[in-house]
Amino acid sequence: MRLDNPSKLPPSEKIATIEEPYVLVMIHTPSSYLGGIFDLCEKRRGTQKNVRYITQDRIILEYELPLSEIMFDFFDKLKSVSRGYASMDYELVGYKASELVKLDVLINGDAVDALSIIVHKEKAYERGKELAEKLRRLIPRQLFEVAIQAAIGNRVIARENVKPVRKDVTAKCYGSDITRKRKLLEKQNK
C-alpha cells in the first residue's frame, strides 16, 4: 500500500514492514573537503558505493541515501561543508525497508494531522524536539497556556509551552492603593 499522507498510516501493530525510497547521490567535490562530506553522508544514514577520481583534485562520490534525508536540508549542509564547491545529482534506485515511525504533533492534547510526519526511529526525538521548539516560536501568545507536544503513538517525546499573556488589570489603578491592586490580581488568577 502506498501512502501520500502520514495521517493514513495504519497503527504499528498492523504493519509488517515500511519501505522508503532510496536514491543514488553523486557528489562532485574537490578532494580537500572529503572528510566533512563523509561525515555528512554517514549522519544521514548513507552507504558509500563508489569513489572515482576525475583529476588529482576532483572526486565523484557515490552514496546511497534515503530520499527523506536529502530532502531535509542536505544540499545546504553540503554547500556549507564544502564552502560552496561541491555539487550533487541524484536518481531513484528503489525502496528499502526501514524503521520508520509516525511522529504526531499535539496542540493542547489534540492531534493535528497536517503537522504529522513519518521519520526514522533514531531521528524521531531530534525531529520532534525541533518541531515543538519551532511551533513554540511561531504560535502567538494567548490568554491561556498552549501545550505543544511531539508524540510517537501514546508516548510524548518532546514538549514545549507557549506562555499565556497576562492582561494588565492594574492599569486603571493609580496611586498607592496596593490592596485594590492585589484584589484585582487575585481575581485574575481565579
Describe this structure in words.
This protein starts with 17 loop residues before the first strand and ends with a helix. The protein is built from 5 helices and 9 strands. The protein has 2 domains: 6-98, Alpha-Beta Plaits, CATH 3.30.70.240; 100-190, Alpha-Beta Plaits (2-Layer Sandwich). 26% of the residues lie in helices and 37% in strands. The chain is elongated, with a radius of gyration of 25 Å. With 190 residues, it is an alpha+beta fold. The mean pLDDT is 81.
Summarize it.
The protein has helices at 34-43, 67-71, 74-81, 124-138, 178-189; strands at 18-30, 47-53, 58-66, 87-98, 100-107, 110-111, 117-120, 146-152, 155-162. It is of the alpha+beta class and 190 residues long.
Question: Over the alpha carbons, how many angstroms does the gyration radius reach?
Answer: 25 Å
Tally of distinct domains: 2
Mean residue pLDDT: 81
Uncertain segments are none
Would you identify the CATH architecture of the largest domain? 2-Layer Sandwich
Which geometry do the CA atoms define?
elongated
Structural class: alpha+beta
Order of helices and strands: EHEEHHEEEEHEEH
Describe the structure using short key phrases.
single chain; 190 residues; alpha+beta; Alpha-Beta Plaits; 2 domains; 37% strand; elongated
Secondary-structure blueprint:
Layout: E1 18-30, H1 34-43, E2 47-53, E3 58-66, H2 67-71, H3 74-81, E4 87-98, E5 100-107, E6 110-111, E7 117-120, H4 124-138, E8 146-152, E9 155-162, H5 178-189
Antiparallel strand pairs: 1-3, 1-4, 2-3, 5-6, 5-7, 5-8, 8-9
